[in-house]
Amino acid sequence: MSISSSRETCLEVKNLKKYFELKAGLFKKPNILKAVDDVSFSIAQGETMGLVGESGCGKTTIGRTVLKLYEPTAGTILYKGQDITALGDKEMKAYRRKMQMIFQDPYTSLDPRKNVMDIIAEPIRFMDLRQGKDVGDRVRELVELVGLKPDHINRYPHEFSGGQRQRIGIARALAAEPEFIVCDEPISALDVSIQAQIINILEELQARYDFTYLFISHDLAMVRHISSQIGVMYLGDLLEYGQADEVYAHMLHPYTKALISAEPIADPDLAAASQRIVLEGDVSSPIDPKDECRFCSRCQYAKDVCRQSRPRLKKAGDSHYVACHLV
């Protein structure tokens, strides 16, 4: 499933599933946690797809699975037309350089025993990218590229603020000279003023190097700002998907409407005039879920058909898809 674009497709995911077995006890069959259940999307080269949803909806699992940090249960992952779904660690090494990740927590994602030089140099040395050239020159170049000073390379992670640590994490991802980067909530642990700086760095790098991003976040305003297309996740299911402007202008799924209504509004007059949609009801369990709409237990519009079968994504416009029986 793809959104129209004149550019080459960088990543295409078809019917991706990632299930986890949960031990249920002696002599009992294990329960199945369906973290990602039949998700499809594609991202064009040089563009950004934003993935939003509540905690536990499967956003990070998608990011880790497309990078093959988790082995997919089913489905197909195509990177620039090449099927990498079944590749082992040895075959994936060539793709590790092209596909990197910026982690959520800058406080735990950096090895406290290594200084900045060793942290950033590790992927360069592991992938043998300098071919005899001075690794230190490349590290200093990357450090300056993300807004740090050359003398920072001799310091350790505990000597930096959260924003500076995230810059180090970005530099480490860039060290492998990637084409596609999963940004796993890279700003959620940072102060608001620092968040804007990190977003600016990501946008500048994309403009300069034509990076493709899968941007995972809770921050709807930031996702709207940085993304060319948006996917809305709920309990492992992709409920709405399309061009960012189209999704925000013509929200179709009740969950998307509720999610966006909760977005803070800076203008007090507009905030007073807006109406927050408060979801009621219990969240369905992702463990061995029923064949029904995952959102029906909290949807005020739910009908019998919503409880009888699970809706699939269907086209609702030139660049807009929605999974809802009532649309």
Structure report:
With 327 residues, the chain is an alpha/beta fold. Helices cover 31% and strands 23% of the residues. The strands form 2 sheets. The chain has an 8-stranded mixed sheet, with helices on both faces. A 4-stranded antiparallel sheet has the order 2-1-4-5. Helix 3 (116-126) runs parallel beside helix 5 (162-175) and helix 4 (135-145) crosses helix 5 (162-175). The two termini are 19 Å apart.
Question: What is the number of helices?
Answer: 11
Rounded to the nearest angstrom, the distance between the terminal CA atoms is 19 Å
The coarse overall form would be: globular
**Count of individual beta strands:** 12
**Helix- and strand-based class?**
alpha/beta
| Residue fraction in strands | 15-25%
Key phrases:
327 residues; eight-stranded mixed β-sheet; four-stranded antiparallel β-sheet
Briefly, what is this?
The chain is of the alpha/beta class. It contains eleven helices and twelve strands.
List the helices and strands and how they pair.
Blueprint lengths: L8 E14 L8 E14 L3 E5 L6 H8 L7 E6 L2 E2 L5 H8 L2 E4 L13 H11 L8 H11 L16 H14 L4 E5 L7 H18 L2 E5 L3 H7 L2 E6 L2 E7 H6 L4 H8 L6 H6 L30 H5 L5 E4 L2 E3 L5
Parallel strand pairs: 3-8, 3-9, 6-7, 7-8
Antiparallel strand pairs: 1-2, 1-4, 4-5, 9-10, 10-12, 11-12
